[in-house]
Amino acid sequence: MSDNVMEVRDLVKHFPIRQGLLQRQVGAVRAVDGVSFEVRRGETLGLVGESGCGKSTTARLMLRLMAPTSGSVRFEDEEIATAKGARLKALRREMQMIFQDPYSSLNPRKTVGTIISEPFAIHGLKKAEGERKRTVRDLMDRVGLNPEHYNRYPHEFSGGQRQRIGVARALALKPKVIVADEPVSALDVSIQAQILNLLRELQREMGITLIFIAHDLSVVRHMCDRVAVMYLGKIVELASSDELYAHPRMPYTGALMSAVPVPQPRLAAAKKRQILAGDVPSPSNPPPACRFHTRCWKAQEICRQEDPPLEPKEGGNIAACHFPLTDAEVIERVPTARIA
Amino acid sequence: MPPLLEVEDLRVHFETEDGLVKAVDGISYTVDRGETLGIVGESGSGKSVSSLSVMGLTRARNAHISGSVRFEGRDLLGASEEDLRQVRGNDIAMIFQDPLSSLHPFYKVGKQIVEAIQAHRDVSKAQAYDRAVEMLGLVGIPEPRRRADSYPHEFSGGMRQRAMIAMALANDPKLLIADEPTTALDVTVQAQILDLIETLQSEFDTAVVVITHDLGVVAEMADEIAVMYAGRIVEHGKSDTVFNAPEHPYTWGLLSSIPRMDAPRGDALVPISGRPPSLINLPGGCSFHPRCPYVRDAHRRVDPMLETVEGAPDHRVACLLDSGTRRRLWSELQQGVAPDVARKDVIEEPLS
Lengths: 340, 352
Fold this sequence. Notes:
Number of helices of chain A: 12
Shape of chain A: globular
Oligomer: heterodimer
Structural class of chain A: alpha/beta
Largest sheet of chain B: 8 strands, mixed
Largest interface: A-B, 48 and 48 residues
Number of helices of chain B: 13
Radius of gyration of chain B: 22 Å
Shape of chain B: globular
Structural class of chain B: alpha/beta
């Protein structure tokens, strides 16, 4: 068995923009614009970036919740991007998703028991009612819900408990890969930690591979073994968490990290906050060459002319940049660089 | 001179079909010119309601408000709607989490700012418009004269937030109340907005009350911090004190339940067990007792007052443990002693 559970190659998703009476295509939102990476067995891979960078679209393409425009997604050496019918259904058993909003991702008319056992119904498993019920109760117990609440409805649960229901549903089929898309960003601070700890525990226990999408860089650092940073549909930096947070090389990553407010007034005063000018450009009309050059304080002529390749930089990070950050620039801006 | 804003024993209770909701239950604080107070709490802690009441925005028929709110010595709670309108948007301005619902979708951004200026200043439309454009430029909106002619939906999220700040600051308010000002924004835009508020504050000596659940945001902005739980302030002190020598178990819980960029990777998170209580049916005694790892029998009966910590006149805590025990527990927590271990130790002490 290969070390990689999934491989993504040159993945592209363009959403057409249509206009006029005939709905002719006049352009495309280039949500994901050629990303390649692999997911190692048992790891937690983080996808980070700001809204509109394509991280959620990438995850949905990986689970084949939508079809890519081009490119390939392989799960254990089998192509997902073009899989169909029974084969696709079988593949989907291996991959599950946990959603951001615990309020809209659970059907309000179904009981918790029904919601968690739905994957069994869909895949025709555990048909004997007693067995199904027992399994669901075990799952509920495992994620910290009271199994006696089997017959309750989602509105009877708090946000944190609902997210536990979502986790139980994702675990039901014992998948190999779980994609968690902003699983804690809708939760209160004191509840977030409960869910993050649960995910880590389950992953260790069951050997699940986790793809963790979040915009909160401190949560990503806590959870992930490796992190891919996305900007306007592309991966701009990829490294192990230790490397990435000790020495980000892409100026965009550095800016993200320096922008995270640190819960320590003494450090907040000493840190240089790197302010990026303006907003993220529209993904329907991304800047040419390096897409970050319009907001980058290190940009020079070459950045407007040539798209930098994603290649190894000093310290082991893989980054797409003509002028990667130096250690001195990193120390000044990034709080985590001082810890290592 | 009286403090700029003085809130004393403010209570806001709402009568509902389910019972009396004690959204704010006796909070007091003061804010002075140029100062920033951070109010931190989770959803339902009463942090937003308390500041809405300062602005007189909770005067619903089912609301019972008591206590006092004084702005430059003037009473705001008893003020007429007419007098309040003079203060709102003029002396005190507010920015909200969601700029889309605070800007009118039908009117151009410039026109909305003009309206805010003309409501309080006797100036011509042209003068007000120039001021609006100036403010949009000040908050970093490119080509402000052209963008003043845009509708809110033509702005990005960050630009809308900036437009709302421009509107709030157009009349040089003495106090700015910012309720989750950056929660809906991406982190790089958040950095822009925080920077902007700080710059404007240092330029105009504006006082700021920032309300948020984000401990990072208050650490970067606030001079003083009030931690709210279940409608009350449970800890109040200088920012450095609250982050580095906190004495309330809830504050400890908040600080150890967030992953921190300023600590080594892989430190386990220590969540607070359970969840915030219902404000209709508060637990007896200390409201935090069902979630507190250090609860003792007496804490279920006695309601703690917010009291000054011995030897630290600026630091107030509402906790029934004595200060010496609290300091010991906090230093143990920082050395990695799990709360459930410490708990036994506390409970074994003789009950008072």
